[in-house]
Amino acid sequence: MRFKKIFYVGEKINKLQDLKYMNYTNTLEFAKQQDANDPLKGYREKFYFPMMHGRETVYFTGNSLGLQPKATQNYVLNELEDWATFGVEGHFHARKPWLSYHEQFAEPIAKIVGAQPEEVVVMNQLTLNLHLLLVSFYRPTKTRYKILCEAKAFPSDQYALESQVKFHGLDPENAIIEVAPRSGEVCIRHEDIITAIEKNKDSLATVLIGGVNYYNGQVFDMKGITDAGHKAGAFVGFDLAHAAGNIKLELHDWNVDFACWCSYKYLNSGPGGVSGIYINKKHLNDPSIPRFAGWWGHDKNTRFKMEKGFVPMPTAEAWQMSNAPILSMAAHKASIDIFTDAGMDALLSKTEKLTGYLEFIIDEINKSLHEKLEIITPRDKKQRGCQLSIVAHGRGKELFNKLTEAGVISDWREPNVIRCAPVPLYNSFEDVYRFGEILKSAL
Question: What is the pLDDT of residues 343-360, one digit of tens each?
Fold first, then answer.
C-alpha cells in the first residue's frame, strides 16, 4: 500500500511539472531554462549548423533537409577506407560487410515507423520506391481502377499517380479521386476522406495519401483511413516523407498495406539520401502479388547460384532490386544510430513542447499585430508534428526574405506560406525565442 501511495504522489508531481512546463513565457530566460532541463539537449552538439552573421542560424527547415550529423564524415570515410583496403572483398571483409549492409537497418527503422523488422527495407529513392510499390498495390480492373489521394499532394506523388494510371491505359481525370479541403478551409476533414472512400467503394483500387501534408503540416488519421479503405476493398498506403522521424507511426498495428519515405528530411541522411519501404507482413509471402524483380530481392541462400526463376526473399527485401549504395547508406547509418540512442518517445515528447512554444510565440506576436500571422497547421497536437505553416497576410515573400537575411533558415511555399519546423533532435527553445525576436523585428 505504501508503494502505491508513493507512486501516486510521484505521478501527481510529474503531471504538475508537465503543466508548469507548458506554462510558456516569451523571455530568453525561460527558453534557456527549458533547454537546461531538456533531456535531449546534448544531441544538438552532434550536428553541424549553418553559420550566418558569425553565429548559428535558426535552422527551421529539417522538414526539407535535415542537418548533417558530425559523425557522418567518419561513417562514410570508413567505407571509403574499406573500399581502398579490400576492393571487392569489402562485400565480405569490410568492418560492416557490404553484402548484408542493408540488414542492419531493419530493427531501428522498424522502431521509427512502427513496423516489424521483416516488413521494412532501405533502398533506392522515394518516388522510385512509390512506383515499385504501386506495381504491387495498384492493380486496376474494369470495375476497380480508381486511386484516392489528397488534393495538392506533393507534386512527385501527383506525377507518380498520373503516370501509373496512364500506364494502365486509364484517364487520370476519371481514375484519380482528390479529396480537398472545404471552401474557406485549409486542412482536409477526416470525415470527408472517409465519405469519399465510401462513395467510391465499388470502384476504388488503392488509397494513397501523404501521412503528413507537406504544405500545411496536417497529420492524417492513418488508422481510420486504413480501416475505411479496407472496408471498401482497397489497398491502403502512405507516403511518409514528412512523417518518418517526425510523428508517432504504428504501421503494422494500423494494418497499413504499404508505405515509403525518404531519409533526407527528419532522418538527416543527406541530400538525395536513400529511401525506405514498408510492406505489411500479410503480403510478404503472397505469390499473387506482382512485383518488379531484381537480383538483390532473390532468396539470399541461392542468390549466387545465378539461376533463372526469381525466388523472392520472405521479407520486404523481396522488393529490393539492387545492392545497397554503401556510401549513401553509411550517411543514413550515422543518423539512425542517433535516433536509436535518443528514442522516438523522447523525441515526440519534446516535439509537443517545442512546437507548442513556437505556437505560443506566434500568438504573442499576434497580440500586438492584430492577427496578421495565421497558423494554418492544426492546433490539435494529435494532428501535427513539429511543422507549423504560417501565412503572413499582406506580406508575402518579402517577409520570408527578411527572415533569411536575419539568420533564419525556413522554407517558402507558394503562394504565401512560410514553413517552420523546430526539430526536437537538434533545435532548442532558445532557437524558438530567437525566431520570435527576428520575426517581430521583420514585421
Answer: 999 999 999 999 999 999
Kindly report whether the global pTM for this prediction surpasses the value 0.85.
Answer: yes
| Domain co-membership, 178 together with 284 | yes
What is the per-residue pLDDT for 15?
43
Does 214 share its domain with 233? yes
Q: Does residue 10 form part of some domain? A: no
Q: Which three cell numbers stand for residue 125?
A: 529513392
Please state the rounded mean pLDDT for residues 371-398: 91
What is the count of structural domains for the chain? 2
Q: Which domain holds residue 362?
A: 20-69+343-442
Cβ count near 191 (within 10 Å): 10
- Stretch 117-134: mean pLDDT, rounded? 98
Supply the pLDDT for residue 10.
41
State how far the Cα of 275 lies from the Cα of 351, in Å rounded to an integer.
23
For residues 355 and 388, the answer to whether their CB atoms sit within 8 Å is yes
List strands edge to edge, sheet with 235-239.
Answer: 120-123, 275-279, 258-261, 235-239, 204-210, 146-150, 176-179
Assess whether 215 and 145 both reside in one domain.
yes
Compute the distance between CA of residue 260 and CA of residue 174 in angstroms, rounded to an integer: 25
